[in-house]
Design brief:
This protein is an alpha/beta fold. The chain contains 13 helices and 6 strands. It has a 6-stranded parallel beta sheet with strand order 1-2-3-4-5-6. Strand 2, helix 6 and strand 3 form a beta-alpha-beta unit. Helix 1 crosses helix 5 and helix 5 runs parallel beside helix 6. The radius of gyration is 21 Å and the shape is globular.
């Protein structure tokens, strides 16, 4: 049911981007976000699916996690349910083919696999993506290229980036999650104590707003170096709110990243910061 909805969204994105690069991250949210919590909604869903309310409640209960942000999400969803990755890849590629057939130019879509911490899980999901995409492209007769890369959000992935790079065509550092896992701070709960840390000088700034150059930054630099030791032309960038913060953008420039990604309203700030970083280096 999601596939046609996703394909329509992707077609609109390709159209709007007018031949510019498009990177699409595979589904990442925890499973419990997809199920209802209101008893009336649960009753309606059970009726629609031909299940008893009791059985559906058991399923919903089984999807609950104590720490969903570090739980069953990202590439782990595709490992458990390969049909999710297959469905999204189908939507991504069919959308690109449809727009191309309408006479519009689509530069090779970049499919991004999130929350990877082990090269074998990246390969598992990548194999599904490649098998699905190649079959669709062959049957369509359209000459479409695509890339498969990964997000570096887990410290282990940063430390083993040379292994990860054997299967990835690009890296995108998810600095929100990377900061969360490096500090051991929950983004949802940090507001309870972070103001005290800032007031007492334990931290100089909120690491979710300004990138932690000494800790998180070290992981980013290490991953870039190790990744490019395997693939010298490996494209590297970051996504998350750090991509629109000037000092973080300057760090990204010195770390050798190719691009930053940020919210639309931060784009002018990011462009200016990137230009200033380039001038400083000269």
């Amino acid at each position: 049911k999601l596939e046609p909805i996703q394909q329509a969204d992707f077609e609109a994105i390709y159209e709007a981007m007018k031949g510019r690069p498009v990177t699409i991250r595979l589904l990442d949210p925890p499973l419990h976000e997809f199920v209802p919590t209101d008893p009336k909604d649960i009753e309606e869903l059970a009726k629609e699916m031909g299940l008893t309310v009791e059985h559906l409640n058991q399923v919903i209960s089984s999807l609950h996690e104590f720490n969903p942000m570090m739980g069953h999400r990202g590439c782990r969803l595709a490992v458990s349910y390969p049909e999710i990755a297959r469905m999204q890849t189908t939507a991504v590629i069919n959308a690109a083919i449809a727009v191309t057939k309408r006479g519009k130019y689509v530069i090779e879509p970049q499919i991004m696999i999130p929350l990877v911490g082990e090269v074998k899980e990246l390969k598992f999901v990548k194999d599904i993506v490649v098998e699905t995409a190649d079959k669709i492209i062959k049957e369509s007769g359209v000459d479409l290229k695509y890339e498969v890369g990964t997000m570096i959000e887990i410290p282990r992935a940063a430390l083993l980036a040379d292994e990860i790079a054997t299967e990835a065509e690009f890296f995108s550092f998810g600095t929100n999650d990377l900061t969360q896992m490096t500090f051991g701070y929950s983004r949802d709960d940090v507001a309870k104590f972070l103001p005290i840390y800032l007031e007492k000088g334990i931290l100089k700034y909120d690491p979710f707003q300004i990138i932690d150059v000494n800790g998180v930054g070290q992981l980013v630099r290490e991953a870039v170096f190790k990744g490019r030791s395997v693939k010298p032309q490996l494209k590297c960038g970051i996504c998350g709110e750090h991509g629109g913060e000037p000092t973080s953008v300057e760090f990204c420039h010195y770390a050798g990243l190719n691009y930053v990604s940020c919210s639309p309203f931060r784009v002018p700030i990011a462009r200016l910061a990137a230009a200033q970083a380039t001038i400083k280096q000269r």
